[in-house]
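Try it yourself: sequence plus manganese (II) ion, in.
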Amino acid sequence: MAQNIEEILAGMSQEIRTPVNTITSFARLLCNTDDPAKKRRYVDIIQTNCSLLQNLLDDMLESAKGTDAPAHVSEAETGADNARNEKVDVQDDEIPITSEHPKHRGVKPTLLVAEDNESNYFLMSSLLEDDYNLIHAWNGREAVELFSEKHPDLILMDINMPLMDGYEATRNIRQLSGTVPVIAVTAYAFSSDRTRIMESGFDSYVSKPVNADRLLGEIARLLG
Ligand code: MN
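Structure, out:
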């Protein structure tokens, strides 16, 4: 039972960390842009994620009152893609995702970004799109498929994803290429997770909330 509670709290922590990460990161981007359209979009994202956070906290309070707390929270925990489909879906109409830049294709290094959370992907693409050609995978399975098809120069791999997680996707990709740099990008908090990541075929590790300098620095370092 104690372990169960630990898992529930870890799940809650993960759920909360996603919107907090997004709010923090887009606040930073907001400070660094003069483009009015981008400012509007970033403020929209911050407001949407504040609402999401509020709803999450309300849900948790409700769960704590009822007897269905474990079931309810484990649903949220395992449903990274459900979170996207249900809660973050609000943003589908609001955030135009531009994952490819035909003008520069073939000139910039190509990065495959495996990330199941739309807000997180939008943050990554905002940080990277000026310097890199981006390919987006929504889950680990898609990441393996897109790696085979597109042969990216580097991979940014979320760990917690639906259908196939980042560990399994990286194992599969490692059978196809022993050399492509793979950076784990994850909100996992425990040092045991970090150890497992570094023993699972990844070249590096960037924790969420993503620090832009660290992310860009690791990509540049691994692309040599
Ligand atoms: Mn994820």
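One thing you can check immediately is this: DSSP finds nine helices and five strands in the chain.
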